[in-house]
Amino acid sequence: xxxxxxxxxxxxxxxxxxxxxxxxxxxxxxxxxxxxxxxxxxxxxxxxxxxxxxxxxxxxxxxxxxxxxxxxxxxxxxxxxxxxxxxxxxxxxxxxxxxxxxxxxxxxxxxxxxxxxxxxxxxxxxxxxxxxxxxxxxxxxxxxxxxxxxxxxxxxxxxxxxxxxxxxxxxxxxxxxxxxxxxxxxxxxxxxxxxxxxxxxxxxxxxxxxxxxxxxxxxxxxxxxxxxxxxxxxxxxxxxxxxxxxxxxxxxxxxxxxxxxxxxxxxxxxxxxxxxxxxxxxxxxxxxxxxxxxxxxxxxxxxxxxxxxxxxxxxxxxxxxxxxxxxxxxxxxxxxxxxxxxxxxxxxxxxxxxxxxxxxxxxxxxxxxxxxxxxxxxxxxxxxxxxxxxxxxxxxxxxxxxxxxxxxxxxxxxxxxxxxxxxxxxxxxxxxxxxxxxxxxxxxxxxxxxxxxxxxxxxxxxxxxxxxxxxxxxxxxxxxxxxxxxxxxxxxxxxxxxxxxxxxxxxxxxxxxxxxxxxxxxxxxxxxxxxxxxxxxxxxxxxxxxxxxxxxxxxxxxxxxxxxxxxxxxxxxxxxxxxxxxxxxxxxxxxxxxxxxxxxxxx
Length: 603
Fold this sequence. Notes:
Elements: H1 6-18, H2 20-36, H3 45-52, H4 59-63, E1 69-74, H5 89-99, E2 103-109, H6 115-118, H7 127-142, E3 149-153, H8 159-168, E4 175-177, H9 189-200, H10 206-216, H11 228-238, H12 254-269, H13 280-283, H14 286-299, H15 305-315, H16 322-329, H17 346-351, H18 354-364, E5 385-390, E6 393-398, E7 421-426, E8 429-434, E9 444-452, H19 455-463, E10 471-475, H20 480-483, H21 492-500, E11 505-509, E12 522-527, E13 544-548, E14 553-556, H22 581-586, H23 596-600
Parallel strand pairs: 1-2, 1-3, 3-4, 9-10, 10-11, 11-12
Antiparallel strand pairs: 5-6, 7-8, 8-12, 9-13, 13-14
Helix pairs in contact: 5-12, 7-8, 8-15, 9-10, 9-21, 11-14
Pathway: Carbohydrate metabolism; Entner-Doudoroff pathway
Cofactor: [4Fe-4S] cluster
Keywords: 4Fe-4S, Carbohydrate metabolism, Gluconate utilization, Iron, Iron-sulfur, Lyase, Metal-binding
């Protein structure tokens, strides 16, 4: 691309150079896997008979290799609203596959937990490592050597990263992600936030809070705030792994069904059996990873992807770190204001032009790579259009200008001149700061700290009035090796109340917040984590901490050199947490992706 921004070009070139050996090894492995992939007719009769015994009307086609056989990996359950629509997808996709001479089988399922349900609960300590379990489940499903392509059915927080990590180890095959879309808009986000803060202050009852929440999360489909799930959908588009414009079309609509049909047809067309082979290993390259990062920054996406994106890249032999994200953030403008960064949700974002508008602006400004291999078009320009139905025919059209400049703006007139995340670092380690949701006058906080080991204790101190002052709240021993790095989003309402009372407030933690982290300045994912002697383990109540996104600093004036690390709280038992001890013990740092599976696998 001739007009590529020089910083984007420099970061891309640096990623290519430092990934040279690992990327070569990965691609060589994929080439070997493609060469040795067994022909289904070369399997023993017993092997093959087992594989198509349940295929009913597709038995003969699979037996004789009449066409490509597509693996459906589904994260369906009907507790998670975003995944509830997937129950109907496999039967439909089998019909769509037959239309083009292919077959499809549900190769396997993966767990799909909802962070909205486990938020602030014991089960949240399983959340991050559910990503590794999902990757492993994907590998098990694909281990039967019966398939020519992968249809990946998943949307939410750890599920898309887990599916992609697992699928990348079978990257000699093509893959298409098939979303199901967001639920319709519920109550206004400001009203929801107001009731949450009133409840935190004891001014609203539990019944009033539940009524508010159920008007927000009210039907099948993805939650409508721009958190990790919807950031996942944006990144899959920026990497070219969806059908163009598929992310935010509502479930159960004719357009959604047409997009699912098109995804199935397209997957059948790009297998090695045809003349347009597009293996996942070649689609997810260094440029595609940079596009995902740029999309994340330009839309103020979830902070969780400062962990997930390096892990996904690593599964493809690509080395991405927070320095790369910070440097990209310095030149990528903020084009979108979607709740919690703005007042409108992803439905308003989609109606205003959505991802197609963002892709077009990024390409025109030279901030994204056009020349990547996508599943849905010749290059990324196909993703600057939006899908429509012309009668019964699915087609795409140019997006045009923004339909709402309070939601979407051009790169020439952005909401902020730089992206939604910054790296902060100093004698307390390295951490991420999401600037897009925080007013600029709050980007710097310097105050005495109050140190906690459990988020429940923060809530108790707030209720007791102990935090009614300028304060930096430190919540430590929340890293991947300590307790699985749960999200601490439950802290947002009380800290927001303190900020609204006029105090200077910040959070510093080696844990996560989430894509829903809001208006309070936060230094999160702090690494090295407290367990093992990280700097947060040396802090004491009253130490003065300075957090500044403007300068990129995270430091204390206290002398930490003579202090002994605080003792780690006893490991929690129950809710299956003891089963995940292996994952915690072998996890690497947040900046590397906080994965035990990738670390133990030598990736």
